[in-house]
């Protein structure tokens, strides 16, 4: 009996995954910036949270989650530690968290992406699926931001312009 080994080609590299995520983050940053200051913190539709609160959630998850993955720490993230008062506060923190994401993402080895990790003690999936969750969550909330901007009569950034 003869067996044949087939080499599996990698679909996406970790660098490409980070670039994809950062492209979404760049677009979300532009959505934040498109809001008038008052509406960023106060406007909502159908009882959903204002976009500033959604942005704080996204800021609170990415870097802390990657740090948790790198350090194998399953503690929950905390949205209470950052309480912005201005759009500039949010954009500054967004940029700082981008650097935190880059720092910790680079410390995850290719092998670790396949390991199961209990993110925040709630979501037990392979590391790569946790990272895809961050992207999915961001897209979901950015969609809410698009609805808010359109309801305010503001044209949101084109969703395909991520860089």
UniProtKB/TrEMBL annotation:
InterPro entries: DinB, DinB/YfiT-like. GO terms for molecular function: metal ion binding. Gene3D superfamilies: dinb family like domain. A divalent metal cation binds at residue 141. The keyword Membrane does not apply. SUPFAM superfamilies: DinB/YfiT-like putative metalloenzymes. Belongs to the DinB family. This is Damage-inducible protein DinB. It comes from Chryseobacterium populi.
């Amino acid at each position: 009996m003869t067996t044949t080994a087939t080499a599996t080609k990698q679909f996406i590299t970790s660098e490409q995954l980070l670039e994809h995520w950062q492209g979404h983050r760049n677009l979300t940053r532009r959505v934040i910036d498109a809001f008038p200051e008052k509406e960023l913190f106060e406007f909502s539709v159908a009882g959903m949270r204002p976009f500033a609160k959604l942005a704080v959630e996204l800021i609170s998850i990415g870097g802390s989650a990657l740090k948790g993955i790198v350090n194998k720490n399953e503690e929950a993230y905390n949205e209470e530690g950052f309480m912005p008062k201005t759009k500039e506060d949010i954009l500054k923190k967004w940029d700082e968290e981008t650097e935190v994401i880059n720092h910790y993402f680079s410390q995850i080895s290719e092998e670790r992406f396949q390991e199961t990790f209990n993110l925040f003690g709630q979501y037990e999936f392979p590391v790569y699926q946790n990272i895809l969750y961050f992207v999915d969550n961001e897209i979901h909330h950015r969609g809410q931001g698009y609805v808010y901007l359109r309801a305010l009569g503001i044209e949101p950034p084109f969703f395909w312009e991520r860089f």
